[in-house]
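Batch 3, record 17
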Amino acid sequence: MTTKAALPKKKHINPMDRQGPGDKVISVITYIVYAFFAFVCAYPFYYIIINSISANNLSERGRVLFYPMEIHFKNYERMANIPGLLDAAKISLMRTVIGTILTVMIAAFLGYMFTRDTMWKRKLWFRFVAVTMYFNAGIIPWVLCMRNLGLNNNFWGYIFPMVVQPFYIILCKTYCESVPKELQEAAEIDGAGTLRVFWQIMLPVIKPILATIAIFAAVNQWNSFQDNLLLMTNRPDLNTLQYVLYQYITQANSLKALLSNTTNSSAIIAGLQTAATATSIRMSVTVVVVLPVMLIYPFFQRYFTKGIMIGAVKG
Amino acid sequence: MSKKTRSYVEFLYILPLLILVALISYYPLYGWVYAFHDYMPPKPISSETYVGLKWFEYIVSNPTRLADVGRVLVNTFAMSGISLAFSWFPMIFAVFLNEIKCRPYKKFVQTVTTLPNFISWVLVFSVAFNVLSSTGAVNTILVDLGLIDKPISFLSSKDHVWFRMWLWLTWKNAGWAAIMYLAAISAIDEQMIEAAKVDGATRMQIIWRITIPCLLPTYFVIVMLNLANFLSNGMEQYFVFMNNFNKKSIEVLDLYVYNIATTGRGNYPLSTAISMLKSIVSVALLFITNTVSRLVRGEGFV
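Prediction for the assembled complex:
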């Protein structure tokens, strides 16, 4: 750069890296403040994890603060005995798998179909779907109508209301539009029909965007709580992990009942350190519910970031 | 297959999905009719249960109900207002995060602060409960340090509920919201910053005169979206944090309509009537903010 030569030569510092005294202060403050933010976000998770594997008589009195004490895994071994927990895990897993597959397939298919200008009234149908992003009737009218459709107290109530996501469809449509038209045309000249072009040509090509959508859809399904609360009022066997965890936290009674069940059996013999307490159940169930998200998150972070970027471009 | 037939066949392929959209997203609008009936499940509505605008009149004519709605509106406005007033926080968070030159540290902070965005409100509540309960980390440390004599019951206190709800919202969302600004920062023309540095600008001057002005268009969109969603705080956060002590100041509109319908005998028509008014105002807000955005930026966000 030409300007560099014009600068005084007393120190060999690139002007781009020059720092004034004020800049140093800012640096130090920034590092400290962000350490605080990181701590505030990370410590609660760490705290819950170390408590779930520490001696229960210590965790109950809040003595486990910085590192695990008298490590044991009884809280996790006992989980199978907590009534309802295993079923809830199954439901959560099922809705996540089924819901994600359907959401992704529908987004891909509709996204592709809405690029087909041969379709009758294509633009109208696209708007018909896209505009649903911008209004909603409100939860109670929604619940009443879902009841009329028989989606309450029914596993499919977790799936059908969530599978058509206009935003994902728009993402897929935009992506399909960026794929060269010749690819489709070549296949069609060879005699492939609309569905075959979708399945054999487009689907493999749009995989990157589908991966992003799949991650978001899966996290949404796993975290979903409201549909459980609103629709599954008479079917405790359909409760998800999120709902069960909520019950454990807020309904001390159900927790106490659990405790008397488990302490009656082996826990008393096992000794105080490992006997189940309200705190130990709460902590260990929390870990089980949060762990899947925490485990996939670091690996898929770039997908998440990509997701918000595509959204931002649109916004 | 003729061209015409093919265009209908393609429509038939998507027809089942269009019907699904109609049932899931449009049919609930029909659910608004419940606001005009004396509906008591399981008895279905009929011409006999039709009561016209009775429930709408009830909202304004019944003094306790009116006071309730007023209180809920104040809560809604307060929570949304605080969010709006601090909506610059993720932007500033991103600006100074970008000032960290040590890449692993920056990456670490970013990863850790975005994680809470991906857990549910139930889990946030669980985290809050575990950390803030009477035997939780915060109380234990405060007591050990001798700062307080006995544990504070944070979650069942009714003080500063609005502000505390904002804190949790920020804890969950700020890191994630910052990503968008970080991307906008990386899109800023390097030459502009280099030129400023050559002219002797300090880091604060660069932030104030270059980085932040470059982020304002993004920030403007966020503010407009905030305004469009002013009445829609969602119910989940407030539902999980609600208890008998803080109920009066935590009930926002979305939670209120749920509570009306589920507590006691459950007043579905009244709840539907309020939902309906809320939805109409929300759509109007969306139109207004979108128009403002179109006038200011030349493009809307819808």
